[in-house]
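I am still getting used to backbone structure tokens and would like to learn alongside you. To get us started, please write out a protein record for me. Start from the sequence, derive the backbone structure tokens from it, and show both lines together. Once you have written the record down, we can walk along the chain together:
***
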Amino acid sequence: MKVGVIGAGNIGQAIATQVLCAGHEVQIANSRGPETLVDLVERLGPGAGAGTIKEAASQDIVAVAVPWVHLESALSGLPDWQGRVVIDANNAVLPPDYKAADLGGRSSSEVFAQMVPGARVVKTANTLAAEVLAGDPVTSVGRRVLFVSGDDSEAKDKVGGIFSEAGFKTIDVGDLATGGRLHQFPGAPLARSLIAVD
């Protein structure tokens, strides 16, 4: 399977690393074009490639990891997602002090879902620091936990399966409205790093 990754910052790179560790391919994209990603693709290694945002968005599963203030512009102009699975790895925080954005009572994933019409949105990979997310999820005391929420069970199974193959323990915490609030950052009760003892 090839997974598109929109966003080549630290979180996007971490997701790409784990997708490759799970044995899949990655096409990563940023706003500046694939020619700026040559060195990154080389560092990521076999199975990684660069593309435009439109090319990355055309994959069956697409992870989006873009600063909240740039999300709308990064996703604008893309066609209807036609049921493709989209991973929301974003947190609704605003620079320079990274305070929570005012979402009008909605969860951040409910807001994100409106930016990707027709997609099956799954929220995950948003609670770990980038260097932890990129590292080996299997520790001496157990596996690192990733929470998963979404409105489509099949989509959650697909996304959870990728991260499970990479070594994470994935825990389904419900739909986007309810579960999404449990692990969105900042302030949610599950927005912290956990380890599951197997």
Observations:
- Helices lie at 10-21, 38-44, 53-57, 71-75, 108-115, 130-134, 153-166, 179-183.
- The chain has one domain: 2-196.
